[in-house]
Design brief:
6 helices; alpha/beta
Length: about 220
């Protein structure tokens, strides 16, 4: 892909997905735009085995944006990094097309693996603020990772994951993550479980009260 075409695509992606952007000129100040330009150059150098130059370009991008993308990572079209400070993308990470990462996201390794050490994100995946995806496994297409989640194992396509450790709480998402950019309206399995326990407790308390009434009546007779 030519540099001009790449710049035009990055501008279009950011304008489409960030309502705070009001003009094309603003995009040139945007961390996602700037870091992706550094990444594209660094990745080409990395593929040609110019590893020092690749890291030098990459580290310039880190200093300017607070986003660290290893030049060895493989990134498809349409990646959008919102805000972005503290985002880390490891060397063997693979990111599909039209994915979204929010601030504080880590796509990292566990320290136990060799070779392919980092996650693979399918197409149309959203990883919300502060989430950590650690290890060599796949996040399926059209999936959404909730804010603050820690994902340590495979995620099927069209899933929503929340929690520490992350677990699938919804399958067959109705809309693609990048169509809604919604990080907040996610299921809360802990709250749902507490609500269920409270309901059961109320039912048991009611039964005990009925039994106590029946016992006292039988004693009076």
């Amino acid at each position: 892909m030519g540099l001009i075409k790449s710049i035009k695509e990055e501008i279009a992606i950011i304008k489409e997905r960030d309502p705070a952007i009001h003009s094309a000129m603003e995009v040139f100040l945007y961390p996602s735009f700037r870091v992706m330009l550094h990444y594209r150059v660094a990745h080409k150098l990395y593929l040609k085995k110019h590893y020092f130059l690749a890291r030098w370009v990459s580290q310039r991008g880190v200093r300017k944006t607070g986003i660290e993308i290893h030049p060895g990572a493989q990134i498809g079209k349409g990646l959008f990094i919102d805000h972005g400070n503290g985002v880390i993308v490891g060397e063997t990470t693979i990111i599909g097309d039209n994915c979204t990462l929010y601030q504080g996201v880590t796509l990292g390794g566990t320290g136990k693996e060799h070779g392919k050490r980092h996650p693979t994100l399918g197409n149309n995946v959203m990883v919300s603020a502060g989430a950590k995806v650690l290890g060599s496994f796949t996040i399926g297409d059209n999936s959404k990772i909730g804010a603050g989640s820690v994902v340590l194992s495979e995620v099927p396509p069209n899933s929503t994951v929340v929690g520490v450790p992350g677990r699938v709480v919804r399958r067959n998402n109705a809309a693609l993550p990048q169509e809604t950019m919604n990080q907040t309206d996610l299921p809360d399995p802990v709250r749902e479980e507490i609500n269920n326990l409270q309901k059961i407790n109320a039912e048991l308390s009611q039964r005990v009260a009925i039994l106590e009434q029946a016992f006292h009546k039988s004693e009076e007779q």
